Give the backbone structure.
Amino acid sequence: MRITSFALLLLALLVATPARADLRITGDHGGYVSEYKAKYERIRDRHERVIIDGICNSACTLVFGIVPLNRVCVTPRAILGFHEAYYDKAFTFGIKVTSAEGTSDLMSYYPQPVKDWIRRNGGLTTEMKKIKNGVDLWKIVDPCPEEFLALALAFRDIRRIHHDRQRRRAVPCRGLGHVLPGGSTPAFHDCRIADVRAINAAR
């Protein structure tokens, strides 16, 4: 088998290009802000992509202020949760105490679309404020194209199956000798109600 120079070049490029490791977030309820800053900075510096495929609450949402938004996307299962920052409970005797400084730091990282949504919804409070799949979320971050393409294809297949079933139900039975497409002979459940009554009346 002859291998062209173009094929060799393409093979060399594939071998030389490192595999990209995407971070898929499915159930992240947050944690220490400093740890999330460090994690997302590593992801940003490695030019990796982040796929939010479930819950991303609290410090998890810092991804929008550290990783470039063109490398972050959401699936239909994505849910974002925002609230005020808290002091480490190890220093507050296990009691949740909000931190104005920490909250201000969080807000400073968020891009403008996130800040706008938070302000429209009363600002950051102790209550978790959530954004689910929909227009509000898409104003902040783009949907993952592969996920929505898969959904569109699945929806198309479902519509096609439904259409085929409706078409089969509409096939008239003018007599028991009528042959349906595919060579099968119709039973009563393949016929329209009116045709079944007509067959019965003719007997």
Summary: Confidence is low (pLDDT under 50) at residues 1-19, 186-194. The helical segments are 5-16, 33-45, 63-66, 100-109, 112-120, 135-138, 145-169, 193-202. The first helix runs from residue 5 to 16. The first strand starts at residue 23 and ends at 28.
